[in-house]
Amino acid sequence: KAGVTQTPRYLIKTRGQQVTLSCSPISGHRSVSWYQQTPGQGLQFLFEYFSETQRNKGNFPGRFSGRQFSNSRSEMNVSTLELGDSALYLCASSDLTVMNTEAFFGQGTRLTVV
Amino acid sequence: GQQVMQIPQYQHVQEGEDFTTYCNSSTTLSNIQWYKQRPGGHPVFLIQLVKSGEVKKQKRLTFQFGEAKKNSSLHITATQTTDVGTYFCAGPDGGSQGNLIFGKGTKLSVKP
Question: How many contacts, defined by CB atoms under 8 Å, are there between A and B?
């Protein structure tokens, strides 16, 4: 069974630009959650999608958005990038919800904003 | 809001010594999960505890869930260099449908 695939692995963007990150969950998993990981704040929840619907959203500004497609693949978009958006962005997939079952994380996308 | 706190933040041990990390939630948890993240890697699921007072073992790792289901611990016996990494506990957000709240993690380094 293939694991969670995130692309790209590394990204360098300039302040003010926008970026789109992709996550392909494990086959059959319908829940995809996104997390931002920074040394200072740790793992912070961005949002969760289930069957193409955003089920929950964390405390991030509206510049952070996402979507999920019918094949469960998910994308997250960050517009008007700020230096503070530099982080490792992780997506996690599970069959129903990460709250009660194991979350499978992807390798992450390392975003650097300069 | 709900918080999950973890201590210590860092732990340096000599190979062969024991290691323990503690996790405390501000609210009662329906379950608690533990993850390990190796340097440069991504979090990998270790275990989930559900029952009050539950104790589970995985080789040299022992996980406990408190009686009140608000705290948990991970104990590693006789650490090895392969144990290096950051250990996170995570609990479900009681107010949402799809959110795990992670502790800040305990970073373990092991000196050979």
Answer: 71
Q: Sort out which chain A residues have CB atoms less than 8 A from B35's CB and list them.
A: 103, 105
Query: What's the confidence (pLDDT) of residue B96?
Result: 63
Distance, in angstroms, between B48 CA and closest chain A CA?
Answer: 8
Averaged pLDDT for residues B73-85: 98
C-alpha span between B99 and B65 (Å, rounded): 20
For residue B57, count CB atoms less than 10 angstroms from its CB and return exposed for 0-12, middle for 13-18, buried for 19 or more.
Answer: exposed
State how far residue B14 is from chain A, nearest Cα, in angstroms. Answer: 24
Report the residue count for chain B.
Answer: 112
Q: What is the pLDDT of residue B99?
A: 84
Average pLDDT over residues B75-103: 90
Q: Are B93 and A104 a contacting pair at CB < 8 A?
A: no
Q: From B1, B15, B5, select the one nearest B82 (Cα to Cα).
A: B15
More confident residue, B86 or A101: B86
| A50, two tokens | 């289930």
What is d(CA B13, CA B79) in angstroms, rounded to the nearest whole number?
A: 8
